[in-house]
Amino acid sequence: MPTPGARTAHPRSRPGAGVGRARVGRGLVWGLAAALPLAFLGLFFALPVGSLVLRGFVVDGGLDLGGFAEVFGRPRTWRIIGLTLAQATVGTAIAVLVGIPGAYLLYRCQFRGRAALRAFVIVPFVLPTVVVGVAFRSVLAPSGPLGFLDWDGTFAAVVAALVFFNYAVVVRTVGGFWAHLDPRAEQAARSLGAPPWRAFLTVTLPALTPAIASAASIVFLFCATAFGVVLVLGGTGYGTVETEIWVQTTQFLDLRAAAVLSVVQLVVVAVALGTAGRARARRERALQLGRPE
Known about the structure:
Oligomer: single chain
CATH superfamily of the largest domain: MetI-like
Largest sheet: 2 strands, antiparallel
CATH topology of the largest domain: MetI-like fold
Low-confidence stretches: none
Order of helices and strands: HEEHHHHHHHHHHH
Structural class: mainly alpha
Number of strands: 2
Helix content: over 70%
CATH class of the largest domain: Mainly Alpha
C-alpha cells in the first residue's frame, strides 16, 4: 500500500520508452530511404526488362524456350558474341598495360600539378559514350589528323575508343591500391642487388594482383556492355550483344531474339561483377594485412 505523499510513476516515464520510439523513428526513416530507390529500380529497370523477357518467352499464354535454340542456331549470334568477347578482352588487356604506368606516375611519384593531371585523366570516363565515339570518328576519318591509319569503321577504332574511355578506371583502381602499398619490400629486393625491373616483377607486381584483377573485371564489364562507342565507330559490322539487342528490337522487331540476347548479357554482367567483387575483397584484405600495427 503506497505511503501518503508518494508519487506514482507515470507509464510514459519508463526509461526504455524514448529509446524504443527513437528506434522506430530511425527504422521508418531508413525504410522510406530504401523504398524510394527500390521503387525507382522496379519501375524503370525491372518492369521494362521483365516485359521484354515475357514478350520473348511467352507465346500464346504459355512459356516457350524454343527461342534459345533458334537464336543460338544463327551464325550471326555467334559472330556477335565472338566480337563482344574479342573487343572486351583486347580492350581490357591494353587498358591494363597502359594504365599501370599511369598509376605509378600519378600515385607513386611526387611532382607539381599531379592533382590537376589526375583530374584530367578522369575526363574521358565521365564523357557521354556517343561524344567519345563521334570524337574518335572525326579524328580517324580520312580527312582527320589520324586518317592515314585507315582505322575508320574498323575493329582497331572500337578498341582504341574503349581503351581511351576506360583508362581512368585502371589508373584510379590500381593507383589507389599502389599508394597504400608498403614500399619496403621492393626497397629490400633492390638493396639485395635486384635491378628495378626485376624487383617490380617479383615483388611489386604480385602485390598489385588484387587491384589489377579488380580493375580488369570492371573494364571488361564496361567494354562488353558498351553501346554508344560501338554503335558510332563499328556500326553493325563490329556490333556487340548490347548493340545487337537494339538492332533486333528496333529494326527487326524480333523480341524473342532480343530477350535471348538480354539473358546472355545478364550472364556476362553477373560473371564480371562476381569476379570484380572477389578481386575487391582480396584487395581490401591485402590492404588490411599491409597496414602497420
